[in-house]
Amino acid sequence: MKVRVIDTDAQGYLKNSADWHEGLAPLLAAQEEIVLTEAHWEVVRFVRDFYQEFNTSPAIRMLVKAMAQKYGEEKGNSRYLYRLFPKGPAKQATKIAGLPKPVKCI
Fold first, then answer.
1. Spatial distance between the Cα atoms of 101 and 83, rounded to a whole number of angstroms
2. pTM score of the predicted model
3. At a CB cut-off of 8 Å and minimum separation 6, what does 95 contact?
4. Cβ atoms within 10 A of the Cβ of 104, count?
5. Catalytic residue among 6, 62, 68, 105, which?
6. 47 near 54, Cβ under 8 Å?
7. Which domains does the chain have, with CATH numbers?
8. For residue 76, what are the CA distances in angstroms to 1, 83, 88, 102?
9. Is 8 helix (H, G, I), strand (E, B) or coil?
10. Catalytic residue at 105?
11. Which of 24, 33, 57, 87 would bridge 94 by S-S if both were Cys, CB 3.0 to 4.6 A apart?
C-alpha cells in the first residue's frame, strides 16, 4: 500500500483541495471527533458542490440559506447543522470536505 502525505495548514484544512477524496473524509472527521453518518455526508457533498459552483466555501449564513433552498427548512437551519457539526457547521463541514476555510469564519 502506498502512503501519501497530504499537506494541511495549522488548523487542519487541506492546502490543496484537489488532494481530497471520499476516503479521506472519515480521517478528517475523526480529527474533529465526528463519525460520519449519511446526514453528515449530505452536508459534506453539498459544500463541495457549493464550492465548485461559486468557487468559495460557504460561511454559516450562506450554508443555512442554501441548504434550506435545496433540502427545506428541516435541514436548512442552524440547529440541525450544529447537531451534526457542533464546533461550527461551516468550519467543520468544509474541513471534512477538503475545502478552504470559509472567509467569515474565525
1. 20
2. 0.91
3. 11, 12, 13, 28, 32, 101
4. 12
5. 105
6. no
7. 17-96 (1.10.10.370)
8. 40, 12, 14, 18
9. strand
10. yes
11. 57
